[in-house]
Specification:
16 helices; alpha/beta; about 400 residues
């Protein structure tokens, strides 16, 4: 079935929610939404695998809200980052007024009194990060004994960030009889282990192979010496006129690059773990509204940036984990739009590029020349001789 043939009609969605979707001009579901929504509305456990930027939030959000309107209790949505929690809540609140449901966001860096006030309003939907959810559970300001629906969103990222112990602790507070939905861009063994531990006969919905990048994103790799990266970046920034997202490996690198961009009169902002919640919100909101053309981020923000129309993603530094390449470039080419991804690799990073290619099961095109910046080639692999074999050869 092609995208043009897909419709929200016939998925079991209640008329009140369909009316909201019509008002929002959501007429064509994404593939993950089309396949996951009917199953989740039936109350079955769902394990959804789809690349970043394919609408996973509404794939669990629509069934979650529809079921809450029909049953007692609450729903818990666990996400890896503050930005993603805010993003998920914003999506859900497009529908909640029509159903009379309230939400609360529980994230670190946000004033505790504000969260306590939100909890006193008896929200039916709790969206939060693992650490802050546990804070409220330990202080007994949150009870989950009536949580009928639990969603683990971006499960692979949560495990990458070391949240497995917190997830186990949270799951001890929810009823054994519940609906559990797990959504992830990739499905490593650790995520499968979580699914096996906390889900009952989950229906697996996979609309793209694990690690698949967005279809309409084109790729380009420049092999460049480290000391020429900033010059190459400035040349590329002059070629593009739209919004640009740049990824650095460390928060220190992101801060340093942001200062450099501002010194060259670029409208740039940064988002990483050293920024306060209000600073991160200001940067993201400024990027959305066009106040900043360039947003410089670390991988911690890769899953929480929901901005339409990002023209270009630049990997100023290659990611430590090859799987994060897919999450990074998923910020462009969203929801069927086209996009472009440029990566800078130093001559000694042949194996890092090869790791990304294995994850994607595709070759990354290498640009061999640039009109102003001298480009390099990957260093040839060094031959490693075994000293024991060499010594045996000498003895003979």
């Amino acid at each position: 079935m092609t995208s043009s043939e897909l419709s929200f009609d016939g998925l079991g969605i209640a008329p009140s929610i369909l009316a909201v979707l019509d008002r929002l001009k959501f007429t064509v579901p994404t593939h993950i939404q089309h396949h996951a929504i009917p199953i989740a509305i039936e109350g079955k456990d769902v394990m959804g695998i789809a690349q970043t930027g394919t609408g996973k939030t509404m794939a669990f959000g629509i069934p979650l809200l529809q079921r809450l309107a029909q049953i007692k209790g609450k729903a818990l949505v666990v996400v890896p980052t503050r930005e993603l929690a805010v993003q998920v809540d914003e999506h859900l609140r497009k529908i909640t007024p029509a159903l009379g449901l309230k939400t609360a966001v529980l994230i670190g860096g946000d004033p505790m009194p504000r969260q306590l006030n939100a909890l006193r309003a008896l929200p039916r939907v709790i969206v939060g990060t693992p650490g802050r959810i546990l804070d409220h559970l330990e202080q007994r300001t949150l009870r989950l004994n009536d949580a009928q629906i639990v969603v683990l969103d971006e499960a692979d990222r949560m495990l990458d960030m070391g949240f497995a112990p917190q997830i186990r602790n949270i799951m001890r507070h929810v009823p054994a009889e519940r609906q559990t939905m797990l959504f992830s861009a990739t499905m490593p063994p650790e995520v499968l282990s979580i699914a096996n531990s906390y889900m009952k006969l989950p229906v697996r919905v996979e609309v793209a192979p694990s690690g698949t990048a967005a279809e309409k994103v084109t790729h380009e790799v420049f092999i460049v010496r480290k000391e020429l990266k900033s010059q190459l970046l400035n040349e590329i920034l002059d070629q593009y006129r739209g919004s640009i997202l740049i990824f650095c490996r460390t928060k220190f690198g992101a801060a340093r690059l942001t200062r450099a961009m501002r010194n060259t009169k670029h409208r740039a902002a940064e988002i990483h773990s050293d920024r306060s919640l209000s600073q991160r919100r200001e940067s993201l909101e400024g990027f959305k509204t066009g106040r900043y053309r360039i947003l410089i981020a670390t991988d911690i923000a890769a899953r929480g940036i929901d901005v339409k129309g990002i023209e270009l993603v630049i990997n100023y530094d290659l990611p430590d984990d090859p799987g994060n390449y897919v999450h990074r470039i998923g910020r462009t080419g969203r929801a069927g739009h086209s996009g472009h991804a440029i990566s800078f690799a130093t001559p000694d990073q042949r194996s890092d590029v090869a790791g990304i290619e294995r994850v994607m099961n595709a070759r990354l095109p290498i640009s061999l020349s640039h009109p102003k910046i001298p480009l390099e080639q990957f260093e040839k692999p060094k031959l490693v001789f075994s000293s024991s074999r060499f010594s045996r050869r000498r003895r003979r």
